Amino acid sequence: MGEPPTVSKASGWGQRLRGWLFGIFIMGSTLFGTLYLFIPFTPLIFFAPRAWRRYADYMNGLWHSMAAGTVRLLFGVKARVIGDRIDPNEMAIYIMNHRTSLDWFFFWNALYQQDPLLNQTEKIALKGIGKHCPGAGWAMQCNSFIFLDRNFEKDKEKIRRLIDYYVGIGNNYQLLLFPEGTDRCPISVESNERYAAKVGLKPYSYVLHPRTTGFTHIVQQMRKSGKLKAIYDVSVGYKDKIVQTETDIIFEGVAPKEVHFQIVRVPIDQLPHQDEEVAEWITKRWADKEEKLRRFYDTPRDQTFDNTPHGKEYELKPNAERWNNIAVATWAIATFSWMFGVLPFPMLSWFSFYGVLFYLIVTAVYGGVEFLVIERFRAWKASGDQKWDWDVVPRIFHRISEKLPLGLF
Question: Is Acyltransferase one of the keywords (predicted)?
Answer without folding.
Answer: yes
